[in-house]
Design goal:
135 residues, alpha/beta, 11% strand, globular
């Protein structure tokens, strides 16, 4: 059984009722896969909704969080995050700090990262990726 961790952009697509994302979400549920929200993606979505006073969307997000599990923050991702940063920097690649933390979370917890930005993460060895927004 696969564990999927949703990235911020996929959560946004889901909340905007993107049909392709919602169909892939449904398929994962039907296949008894575990779906969770990466904790840093949770932070990114929630802070944006709070900052823009998007109360209806915040309620929708809270409902989504009740349907799936939000991954827990733990110290196990700190060393892998540092290693990912160092490996990318050595090769001249950079990505946002939050994305490094999301990637490390997925690697440590053996999750497939569901993102619409697979090219952004493709240089991270051992990170399984899926794009639920692709038809």
């Amino acid at each position: 059984m696969i564990t999927f961790a949703l990235d911020t952009n996929i959560i946004s697509f889901y909340m905007r009722k993107n049909e392709v994302v919602r169909q892939n979400f449904k398929k994962a549920v039907q296949s008894k896969s575990t779906i969770l929200i990466a904790p840093f993606a949770y932070y990114e979505v929630r802070r944006g909704l709070l900052a823009s006073n998007a109360t209806r969307q915040l309620k929708d997000f809270d409902n989504l969080c009740r349907r799936v599990r939000v991954g827990e923050l733990d110290n196990a991702i700190l060393n892998p995050s540092s290693e990912i940063y160092s490996a990318l920097r050595t090769k001249g690649w950079t990505i946002d700090e939050i994305d490094i933390l999301i990637a490390a979370f997925c690697k440590v917890h053996d999750c497939t990262l569901v993102t619409n930005n697979t090219r952004h993460f493709e240089h991270i060895p051992g990170l399984a990726l899926a794009d639920w927004s692709a038809a």
